[in-house]
Every structure is written in C-alpha cells, then in structure tokens.
Input
Amino acid sequence: MSSFKRRSTKQTLTPPGTRILLGSTSNLITSTGIPSLDDILGGGLPLSCSQLILAPDVHSAYGELVQKYFVVQGLAAGQAVCVINEGARSFLEGCMWLPGANSLPASINSAGPGREDEEDESSQKHDAKIKIAWRYEQMKQFQTSVSSSTQSADDFCRVFDLTSRLPVSTIDAALSAKQLVIFDVPISDSAMATTRSMLKHISDFLVTYEEEQKEVATPLRICIPGLGSPAWGDIEPQVICYFLYAFRSLLRTHPHVCASISLPPHLCIEKWGGPGWVQKLGWLSDASLSLTAFSANPSLTALFPTYHGFVHIHSLPAPSTLVSPSDKYSMLRGLTSSGENNLAFKCMRKRLIFETLHLDVEGGIGERRMPPAAATVTVGGLAHDHSSHGHGGAASIQVQVEEVQNKVELVSVAEDAAQGKTEAVTTSSFVKKPKHRKKVAFTSDRPDLYDF
Amino acid sequence: MFSLSQIPERGDLLLVTDELASPADFVLHANLATHLKDSSKDARCIVLSVSGSLSRWKTLATKSNLNVPNLIAKGSLVFIDIEADLEELHSASRPSLRHIFDRLVSILQDEDHTSDHTLLIVDDISTLEWICFSTQEVSRFVRALSAACDKTNTSLIIRHHVITPGNPDELLRLLLQISAYRIDVFPLSTGRSGSVSGQIALHPGPGRTGLKTIPRSKAVLYRLTDTSSTFFDRGTGAAVL
Output
C-alpha cells in the first residue's frame, strides 16, 4: 500500500458576507457597505463590535447615509438585519440599492451635479496615461482612495448606487422571511426607562435569534440610526453612555452580531454632552468616527470644492490585539509609511467615498488653467504709469508691452479633383491678433534706497 | 531604560491615565503578565474589568504565554466583570458600588487562597462615573479600595481616562492625592505616527521620591506591536524606527 496521501486543504465555512480579520484568524469581519470605510476600519467591522458614526452638521445627514449603506449591505449579503428606529419603514424605503435595480427617473438622474462620477472616472483614466520620468516609474503610485477594483462581486461588499432605491417588494419579502426585523422605540416614563426596556428587548431578541441558528450562524446587523432622537424621551448624556456601555457588553456575548449607531446631529457636539463628550463616546464604542460636513462653513466649501467634509477617527476596533488592525492594513490612513493622512469624504451622485484629503490641481483652484485676466488693459508701445494719474499709493505697477510683428499666413486649400468639384485655390488671409508680451514690474513712488 | 516591571511596589496604588488616541491597555496587560510570571509561585492577580472583555484578556495573555483558564481554575487569577452585574447594580433606586467592594474585600481576605503578593487591577474607573454612578460614589469606592489594599499589602493599579487634557476632573484630583505613582500615557502632539504609538511620563505621588521619575517634557516614547510594547528615548531610534 502506498504511503502517498493527497494533501487536501480543509475549507472552513465562513458565514455569508464575512471574512477572516487580517492578522487574526479568530475574528470575523463584515463590510459596512462602503469599501473605503472598510479600509479605515482595517478591512471591515469585526463581529461582536459596534461602530458609532457622529455627524454634527445639522444641515446634512451623512450619518444616516452610512447607516443606510450598513443596512443594505446586510440585506444584499443575505445577513439578518434589525433596524431600531421610530420611523424604520420610511428609513428603509429611502435606502439605496444595487445599480439598475430600481433607478430613479431619468430626469433626476441626468440632473446637473451628477457628472462628477464620470468626471472622476475620466480623470482617473487621464492620470493613468500620464507619462512620468523614468526614474519614478518603478515607484508605487500614491493612492488617495480605495480603487473600485477591490470591490469584488462577492457578497462581502456589494456595489450600491445612490440613484437606485431599495424596492418595497424586497423590504416586504425580507420582513416576511424574518431577514429584516423592525423595532419601534418603546414609550416609557423616562429616557432611562426607555433605554432599559429597549436593551431588554434587544437582549431577548438576540437569545431567540441565536437559538434559531444552525451550524453556520448567519450574522445579524443591528442598526440604530437615531439613538437619542425625540422618541427616546428626555435624553441625557448619562443615559446615552449607559446605553452604549450596556449595548457593547451585550454584543460581546453574541459573537455573530455587530451594530452601527448614529446620534442625531445636535447630540454629537461637546456643547450638548459637556467637556470631553466626543471622547467619552469614543471610549464607549469599539469604532467611532466623525463626519464633519462643510455645509455650515462656506470658507471650507470654497477651499475644498471636491469634498463634502472631514473624517475624524476617534477610536478603531481591536478585538484581540493591542494595536488596531487598521494601523497596519489601512491604505487610506497610511500609517505604515509615516504619520496619519488627513481624511475627507465626498458624496457623489452614485456613491459615498472616504479618501485622503488633497488639494486639487494648481493648489486648490478648481480650474486647471487660469483664465486670461479681463481687467488687464494693454496700451501698445506705451508704458502705463499709475503715478502719472496722481494716485497717492506707495507702490504702482508698470505694464510695458512690445508689439510683435503681425504675420500673414496664406492657406491654400485644394479640394479633391477626382470628385468632380471645381478646383479652387482659395487664398485666405487672416491676421492673428497682435500678441503682446507683457512685462510687469513694481515701482515705488519714493526714491530707492540706493538711488542717488 | 524605562520598564513597567519596576512599579507598583507592594501596597502601592499606581494610577495609569491615558487618552483616547493612546490607550494604556498595554500597561495593564504587561503588569498582569509580569506579576503572574515573575513573582513568586503563589502570586495572585484580581482583575476588576469594567470595559475589557474576558476573551480579550485571554487572547492577549495567551500571547504572553499565560494560560488564563488554568490560572482562573487554580485561583491565581480572579476575573470580576462589572458588565455582567450592571443590571443588578443599576436596578437599585440609588446605584451603588458597595456590592462590588464587598466582593473584592472577601476575595482579598480569602484564607483559602492566601498569597504572598496580590495585585488588583481596575481596568477603567472613568466609565463607572459616565454611566450611572455619581462622582461621590466612585470616589468613595476608590478611597475604600485603596484602604483595603493598603491593609492587605495588595498592589493596586487603577486606570483613568483623561478626556479633558490639562483640566483634571474631580475624580482625577482625588486619585492624584492617594496614588503613589502616576503613569501618564499620552499621544504625540503631532498626531498619529506609524512608528511611534505615544509617550509615557512617570510622576511621583505626594511624598514619594523612590523611583526616578520622567517629566512630560522628557517623556519616553513607545511603540506597540500586536502583543507587547517597546520603549525608547526621544530623539533616538534605538533600533525601533
């Protein structure tokens, strides 16, 4: 009998929509629905962990947008999803969905600001074509965003289109199959009573959910898009802290559950929770990020026209190590080479992207080329001296223009004789506009120091 | 070079303060491993866990060659999880930490597991104040715990999160008064770095002159790996960078 044995790799079954955390085989991660956010978290959100998204800007709802991505990714990957909100149904109906599934009307699709995606893609192609010096050719190209090629077609992270809407039929089907569960916020005497009753409700639900699972448990996502909203009662900072703390300990006892939480914008600022409020929230959740939108600050909007806000990282999940996996594996944060990159987000027509904050071409000016200054008036052959007008300024600008000889070009256009058309030699002459060469210099009213 | 094994001495209270950008988990885990491995055979450690989960303590201890389930079974390691008792603690009309204190004292005075040297680690005192317990209640708990450890010659390590740097809160002021030493872990002022995880300063408590202290201006840098930490002086790579 031969001693030869075929070596067969034993494949471990991972639950749908999950992967093994890089650098730690004992932890599973799942996607947030946004590849660039997954990269920031170190590959994805680990199961039994929670992420807290703070969006302090009251004029926008980027926090809610991230929650919607979290929910639809769960639904698309075949995971169970639980939404806890007073208006969960309308929240779900406003979610994005897979491209082409249920697109918005074409009139909305072709609306003005929607060209960004195409422009972005074309600029990426243009960048790829740029010929660079041979000595730098071998260098790895600096990447500012997570490329779309990493968005594989598998269930881990699906590509969603913000112009598509989650079909109502899909919501109904998921509800009837118990893939999607909706919890309303209970009404109680006080905010603390509401919080405790909700925690009890979630705890009971998790116990029943785990009992129903088979050998390979399906992960469950819990989404709370508006913790502390008016439906929760007269909420206080201590109640939010209590909920986050108790909820995190609940998740730790259930290894196949993860959660994503957002607070209403007015609760995300230090003014509401007191000094160090955002720090407290960071300590009480596994991952905590702030999306500070520019919409309230016109100067920032003007400075960074292609971005919609800054991303601040407060805490990152490290379920079984001292250092977060993100520190080692995140491309966007760039900690492997030097200090942390500045991060920003932009919401385009079809997707939300987190990327490295960088100035545009020409150092922050939107246009690639400066338009000619309309205000510059040139006087041919004359030196224009402001001092002659009697201005009392300390300094003036001289613009001297040299005339360039006009060139007359003769252009002959010969039409094809074979086509039977009359051969004609058209002699057209056009005169190019006089090209002026400008010389600009600063002069001073006062005599120069060394002018004797 | 700076070493975490020098402190705390027997019966001392070591205060560990950290910030969100530079968590001091590594100080607690290193102390646990050092105490259980380097001390005499009957060394005992009690962990009062407020924020950390047992599975994380287990995983990190395993990487330091410690078998936590064995140690728990042997009685060398006692793990008390406040998260599990939270509902019970909070259900009372006035949330109190008395129950936890009584439990700790009974463990410290347990005659079945007498130990030459016991270490008590409280992994996070600030969260207790944030969730439901009043500052007065937490301050009383800390004071009573310190006194109980002093009586039983137990070393005590308490971690406190600084959320308003430069502006110490009431609880931190009390802790500074009763602690023998303070390990101050804080982030780089220039932001996160790929090579340096943060800085460490060592301050003496009132009337303490034994150890060589490290002021904030000359803080030692540290770099974290998955399971351990390396210390090096400012301005020197020291084979780390």
